[in-house]
Amino acid sequence: MTPAPERLRIAVLASIAHRTPPRSYGPWEQVASTLAEGLVALGHDVTLFATAESRTTARLHAVAPRGYEEDPTLDAKVHECLHVAAAFERAAEFDVISNQFDFLPLSYSRLVRTPVVTTVHGFSSERIVPVYREYDRTAHYVAISDADRHPDLGYDATIHHGIALEQFSLVLEPGTYLLFLGRISPDKGTHAAIEVARRAGLPLVIAGVVQDERYFAERVAPLLGPGVTWVGAVEPHERDALLGGAIALLHLIAFAEPFGLAVVEALATGTPVVARRLGSMPEIIRDGVTGVLVDGVDQAVDAVARVPLLQRAECRRDVEERFSAARMVADYARLFAGVAAGAPAVSRSSRASRPTVAKPTERSLTP
Question: Is the whole-model pTM more than 0.85?
Answer without folding.
Answer: yes
